[in-house]
Amino acid sequence: MVPHGHIEPDNGEDGGCTGEAARLRALDRYRLLDTPRERDFDDIAEAAADLCETPIAVVNLVGDGRQFFKAEVGLGVRETPLETSFCRQTLLQEEFLYVPNTTLDPRFEGNPLVTGEPGLRFYAGALIKTSEGHPVGTVCVLDTKPHELGDRQRRGLMRLARQAMAQMELRRSLREQAEQRLLHERILDSATDFAIVATDPQGLVTRWNEGAERILGWTEAEMLGRTVEAFFTPEDRARDRPGTEMRLSLEHGSAPDERWHMRKDGTRFWASGEMMPLRTEAGETIGFLKILRDRTEQRESGAALQASEMRYRSLVEVSPQVVWFGDAAGNVTYCNAYWYDYTGLPAGETGEASWMGAIHPDHRESTRATWLAAAGSGRPYEVEFPLRRADGQYRWFLSRAQPLRDADGAVRSWIGTSLDIHERKFAEERFKTLTELAPAIIWFGNPDGSLSYLNDRWYAYTGQTPEQALPLGWGEVIHPDDLQRLLNVWEHARTNEVLYDTEARLRRRDGEYRWFLIRAEPMRDAGGTVVGWLGSDSDIHDRRQAEEELRRAREQLRLAVEAAGTGVFDFDFDLVSNELNWDARLRSFYGLAPDAPVDLAVHLARVHPDDHAGADEAVRAAIDPAGDGVYDITYRTVALEDGTERWVSAKGQTLFRDGRPVRLIGFAHDVTESRRAEQALRETEERYRLASRATNDAIWDWDLATNHVLWNEALGEAHGYAPDAVEPTGDWWIGHIHPDDRPRIDRSIHTVIDGLGSAWSDEYRFLRADGSYADILDRGYVIRDPAGRAVRMIGAMLDISERKRAEEHQRLLTGELQHRVKNTLALVQAIASQTFRNASDLAAANEAFSARLISLGRAHDILTQSSWSQAPIAEVVEGALAVHRGGASRIRASGPNVPLAAKPALALALALHELATNAAKYGALSNDSGSVDLRWHVVHEGEAPRFCLTWSEHGGPPILSQPVRRGFGSRLIERSFAAEVGGEVKLTYAPTGLVCRLEASLASMQEANDETAA
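The chain above was modelled as a monomer; its predicted structure follows.
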């Protein structure tokens, strides 16, 4: 979108008109103005609107005094004047114009699109620039409210502009390539006096014209793919003359020469030739063109040379295009009769003023400059310009020229052609949307099925005239076998208004039929009504032949490979004569001698009984005309002589004639060993399957390329996952590892995968289906390809949770044992110290020490029976007092069955032992009549229940006074019960006997504290 008229440069320098003219010429080369919409450009506009989140987006081409919208979203028009355009400012920018609010930008002050409808407030546009830097349009977005544009959106809009430019270049390139191919084909086909050979960059023949076949003797089929050395003499081949010519042509543009060459029959002929490189527009060498002319007679006779030159001149004179020659300096020296007939210039007039005067004034200087540049550089020349006809009318011509070089590579002369392309130019301007279909036949269809237009390619191919072809005569060139099907498809497409797509054979003007791909799209008006059809017919004959040849080649390759690997052979089954033709190998499969006679009865007699029905049915299915004729079966044969069984795989194809099978051709091979191997493999796989089911290990198989993991059934059985809950990916596995273990496992396994190792092992916690974690020992093995890359990993997850718990329990037991031994030794040390500290009688002290240790040991025995968790109070009392019970009634114990923790049980046992020992020495148990009452109970008063135990002695020696000092026994009771349990100890020395009251909270008697008792 630019202002009306020319676009002035923003640098203030002169030359705006020249720059604008160059820009308009650059735009004209793409021939896109006033063309219908195209999906590719519509996609760009839609992408721009989506990217920038605007209601309006445009792919805009700026012409002379107008702007044409190749694609638009939200605008509803295809063209607008330039006076009020926003894009005129964009063309003055280097790459991009961004106006977040037009009301604040002085460049748009008073613009009616801003002040009036539609009230535009936002604009952003990226330039569409040619490779030469000419701005030919924009990709822009607009909005009726101010808008902010991010960097990502700005870059995306510029990318879309480059994509639009790429689409334009693609269409121009396809059009020019088609024109170039057409010219080359016409030149090659008309130059039958010249051997014209095209090669690839390595010198292998890719094209061989009729002149080459006539002059050299080889057909094109014989030479395709062969090196050009075939027609060079042995001595030239030894000197690598072909390679020298290719090198010279690359350096100088061509390599002319005159020398002897070889024909197919071995004879030699003198030829003048030229080697030229074939280059793309980008300058890439895609091959070479070798042109030869037989100059043998001219060399031997001047008359023969003159006659040959006359024939060549005659060929030029009758050419349906302008042919001209120039000298090395670029002066035109000859034009054929076509030139003079067309221009009306005097015959023989070749001066620059004459041919320049025939060129349209607007193109004279550019054409002259292009020609002089080519002549000065020795490079090929090509230009298009309008040429004035004798009646004053201008028509477009395409002019090309190539330099002719001598043996040293110097330019000797020029040869050129000027081809009338006016009709093509007109057609291109009229039907821009058809450029992608070129060089196909293009046509317009009416809603009723008739045609209103066929391009020249139709008439050139079929030989019909427009009067013969339109509106319905085109059906006469359709192959009779294809016509009805084509009409049915055409009727279906028109009735349902869908894409018309079919293939049919079209008769060429010489009577030959070629396959074409025929397609058409319905064209709709604004209301969606189909108003016509735009179609194209593309020649796919060569493609179909190539596909068929490829199919045959693949089939031959497949058979050859199978033959090499399994000894395949052929057998014929003639269904007409009911004869079987077997070779010796097939006979051996049936246990027959090489020359043994065979027929259908022999075959059936030697097929295994269990396979007889299947083999018979396979033959019936293969010869059924309603089927595909394929015979494919594996069966067993039995040698009647020795009973040997063989597995035979047979494949074949039935040939039908007039709906009747006439022949079954196939092959067979012995697959006995492979069958045995398959059976062994199935057995191995079954053993593996059973073994994997029997083990508790979750076996996994990880494809590292696809991240796919295959698990066995143990994963669900061991960890509770249903099959549909397990995702077969490595991510699922790593995601179920405990978060604290996940980074470590990820590092350890990838260290092995990314390194050179093969074995991996590690432990981690794995999430079960119920939410708990299992301890896992995982081991895997990496499989690598020949390059050492890890491609697969197989392993097994072993649940070691029980082992881990056992190890933890063992650790706790070991610690507990260590602590108990330490405590026990400390207690024994204290008992020993107190027993022997002031002992006057060592024997008595030893006896007391032993008794105390025995009591301690009994308490240990009771606790050991309950794993040192707790012990019933009755057993503790019985163990502590058993040695002191003289009779059933001397010590009477009673109370509820209260379980005691380990440390309180030991403390109570030692206290009772001391009380009983003291009673036996000094108290109620020291005579025959005394007794002890031992009572305990739980008092539920206050906030927490308390444990109370009372030791009461009766009938012993009376206590006449309180003891003057505390003995070890009383101190041991206080230490073992009061200090260790936190209870209260009260000793009362009543005249009737000792009373000891032990009291502590019930919780302290039943709960183990942090320090385990010994």
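The CA atoms of residues 519 and 807 lie 78 Å apart.
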